[in-house]
Amino acid sequence: MGWDRNRVPVKLYVITACSRPENLRFLTPSLARAAQGHDVTWHLRFDAERIYVGGQALKNRMLDEITDGWVWILDDDTLVYPDLFARAADVTVRNWTVEAIVVSQKRADGGILLACRENVRVGQIDIGQVILHRDLIGDERIPLTYDGDGIFLEKVLAGANVVFVNDVLSLHNAL
Description:
Helix content: 25-40%
Number of strands: 10
Oligomer: single chain
Shape: globular
Number of helices: 5
């Protein structure tokens, strides 16, 4: 089952800038379970130099490589619930004009980053909560700062057709 936008199957691209390769032994099976049955390509780059917090420069290079489909930016310490992609695919089938999907995310301390319009701001949203249609991203890139992910999301989600899914579908800072 592929993702559907205007009745045309498209890909989901997952991008990860990895500075902690030891996390891959948990992250890889987590992503594989969620991707099963979906057209998913994982772009993984190692951030050995750790020049910018969160690997923003590498994330931006990977965004430059992707020209279509859907994009999910997965940090190397975030785990995926098995039904994340199935739920997101269901949203796109029911709403062809959706440009982004925001899911709730459980934090390592047990708190919840709730999927709602009010939380689309720096410090209240994590990049791992959001799946974006590539057209929505355009030429926007993640600022090379600690809070760059949040700044990026505030810009691309402003005025976008976003579906908020209040189910917890990923684990923030889990590793």
